[in-house]
Amino acid sequence: MPTPTSLSPSRTAASPAAASRTSPGRTAPARTAPARTAPARTPLARASAPSPVPRVADSDRRRTSASVVLRSVLEHGPVARSTIARLTGLSPASVTDHVARLAGLGLVREAVAAVPGRSKGAGRPHVPLDLDDSRFVVGGVHVAVPFTTVALLDLRGRVLERREFKHRGTEPYEVLARAAEGLAALLAGAAGSRPLGVGVAVGGWVDRDSGTVVEHPLLGWREVPVREILAARTGLPVHVDGHARALVNAERLFGQARGSRSVLHLFAGNVVDAAFATHDEVHHGPRSQAGSVAHLPLAGGTEPCDCGRTGCLQAELSELTLCRRAREAGLVDADNPMRVLAAADAGNPVAVRLLRERARMTGRAAGLLLDVLNPERVVVTEVGVLFREDCLAALRDEVGAERAGCVAPTGFRDLVLAVAGGAVALDVLYRDPLTASSESN
Q: CA-to-CA distance for 428 and 435, rounded, in angstroms?
């Protein structure tokens, strides 16, 4: 079982509002023209040269509507079709149509076991719908600085199997080859399930659209075509994103931020980065560079940074810094943050002080981002905050009493990296289930 050294780093379903878009209106019927003018075009003539715009809009609307229906089943299932219609604003006929499509793809099924005994009255009881989580899995890969995590997840984001591979070196083709081999071994043990695709989460600068790690200084990666490499080795659709954005999607789909209109995720591992989502959309920015907070100045920071300044977020909060400070303070076995955590749990005052101080500075960083973005919910992934109440209290004290209630640790704890990788693929599925599920066939 992996440990939260997994904190060492390395969907969005379309908004329901989008489902209310309508295709361009039809032109008004032509008025009767005088006999001397050219005859009006007949319906057949009009149909012979249709505009492509309605077809594009119809396709987009079907994709969006299917997404909100599947999300409703995920969040509320077992759930009646009539309830889905009320929650989404779609017509009952549209819900029935999309449910049939999703059932045909094997994504939803009727939850017969949830139907109470048939009454003596006439008519068939309404059968609620639920996710069919028995058929499909997604693969997850998270590339951290010291190791790679591979996992299989079901459609609810639950981790079914996972393994870790300590890096022999950080040459990207070797790291990704071992990840592909690990996934193949997990899939061989899940012969009854069909893989929909693979999600990859990596720290640093990750271009989601091209599936490329543009830059990861701690791994020494530049312009690594991750999607291309893993797709060739696995034969599956591969999707790649930064781990903070992956975790925002995981929190919105399966975790602490369900139902939140806006959410910020702050990740403090070896890499320190952040991601922000509002109205069901994660902000990526040009070439997916949003969320790079490594060099934001942190008030009170004393750690020199490679950029030449002092007190940058990553230099101050990195797990590498935590472990180095622990060794300098006499904790000779502090080669990873879990050893620092174990020492604190055993009552070592130095370890306790270091973890509380790091949590306090993480709270200061969260407060800075709260000031700028003002999200409804903040989720923090940081080792002390995850496992120690005193560290969570220190973080919330720094954020301030008036805002402390909106800040919480991730609920995934030691599964966080396995979930991050799988969430990249699950985000794609829940945003566009009709395409994502059919690609695997």
A: 9
